[in-house]
Amino acid sequence: MNDFGTREFDVVVIGAGQAGLSAAYHLRRIGLRPGENFVVLDHAPRPGGAWQFRWPSLTYGKVHGMHSLPGMELTDADDDRPSSEVIGAYFEAYERRFGLQVHRPVEVSAVREGAEGRLLVETSEGTYASRALISATGTWDRPFWPRYPGQETFKGRQLHTANYPGPEEFADLKVVVVGGGASGTQHLMEIAEVAAETYWVTRRPPVFREGPFGEEQGRAAVVMVEERVRRGLPPQSVVSVTGLPLNDAVRRAREQGVLDRLPMFERITPDGVAWADGRSVEADVILWATGFRAAVDHLAPLRLREPGGGIRVEDTRAVRDGRVHLVGYGPSASTIGANRAGRAAARSVSRLLDLDGVPA
User: Fold this and answer.
1) Are 20 and 13 a contacting pair, CB within 8 Å?
2) Element holding 147 (H helix, E strand)
3) Cα 332-162-331 angle, rounded to 5 deg
4) What is the DSSP letter of 342?
5) Which of the two ends of the chain, N or C, has the fewest CB atoms closer than 10 A to its terminal CB?
6) Residue-wise burial string across 283-294, b where 16 or more C-beta atoms lie within 10 A, e elsewhere
7) What is the SS3 assignment for 357?
8) What pLDDT is recorded for position 63?
């Protein structure tokens, strides 16, 4: 600690979800020591990243495409146990095994230019100065709420996926689910079993994907998302270009009419929603399964955004400031992408710090 009370590290990692833990693991691999050369800051109250906030009915068996963190497999998981518990316990064991010494709960308010080429990371536990920054803050803290005329007049309940409590609270109610992604379809299929009525509303017709989704298809999807990031546009989710997997549960829901999609309504009324053609439905609840945006407001003082609204990234480096690395952003938002991005960021940091070699 220097005379001004600012703690100095080579690297500060913000976020201890999949991407942040992967980055921390690979920083160890290049010879940096937790608590000595780098520090991991996490705003959540406990290990588990965004998974700890998932609804109880999302059991581990329903999770699509969860990949183990590097260096430690997730084995013998109970498919019937909530994913928040399974992955929370796994992340906790991972932090302990590799001695990552995550600081939590720590809120990061801003990252600014400091003296002598360092970045100043302002947090709830003081200021850190670092030569490099790995931002792994994901999207969970920035739920996206669309705005429609009359929204403030609705007399029922409105909530977002981020606050979804599970299907029980919707028993005997009329529910409008808005959103055509994986969360929207999962919510809808659960709620339909207990609700009085359900309506599924999406901006675009949903695309269901038949057959296996292998590495080749995955790479093609990532390339499409990556292209937006290279152009400095706000990233889309990988699922937005892959479509929804057509499994047995989805087939049943389609046969039963649960997944009969309606186009986006024009306005919200005190008692429901209405379309331009005069049609309307009554609703007790509107559930916005409308996704999330990248949580990067703490980087605003560095002026990294492009005119298109996004942060242009090459590999994991921000084009406007090579000291800043974004992992779990855009094409690396999936669990396997986060793992790869953590490794790429560590390799880039090694070059920036002029360390001797990087393990394969």
Assistant:
1) yes
2) none
3) 10
4) H
5) C
6) bbbbbbbbbbeb
7) coil
8) 80
Residue with tokens 């050369």: 37
CA distance 211 to 274: 36
For residues 271 and 286, the answer to whether their CB atoms sit within 8 Å is: no
Q: Give the dihedral sign, CA 20/78/159/53.
A: negative
Residue 199 β-bridge partners = 176
Q: What is the residue whose two structure tokens read 């009915």?
A: 57
CA distance 338 to 332: 5
Q: Give the number of residues written for the chain.
A: 360
d(C-alpha 100, C-alpha 88), whole Å? 15
For the chain, the first-to-last Cα distance in angstroms comes to: 33
Decide if 226 contacts 331 (C-beta within 8 A): yes
105 CB neighbour count, 10 Å cutoff: 12
DSSP per-residue codes, 199-215 = EEEESS---EEPS---H
Mean pLDDT per 10-residue interval, the chain, length 360 residues: 72 96 97 97 96 89 81 91 94 97 97 96 97 95 95 98 94 96 91 97 85 55 65 66 76 91 97 97 97 94 92 92 92 74 94 69
Cis peptide before 105, with omega less than 30 degrees from 0? yes
- Counting Cα atoms < 13 Å in the Cβ hemisphere of 236 gives 16
User: Cβ distance 206 to 244 under 8 Å?
Assistant: yes
Amino acid at 312: R
Residue 258 main-chain phi, psi, to 5 deg: -65, -35
Q: 13: phi > 0 → left, psi -120 to 50 → alpha, else beta; which?
A: beta
Helix axes 182-191, 248-255, angle to 10 degrees: 60
Sign of the Cα torsion 191, 194, 200, 206 reads: positive
Q: Which of 116, 107, 99 is nearest to 44 (CA)?
A: 107
Q: Which whole-number Å values give the CA distances from 48 to 88, 90, 137, 267, in the listed order?
A: 4, 8, 13, 38
Q: What is the pTM of this model?
A: 0.86
CA distance 194 to 59: 18
SS3 57: coil
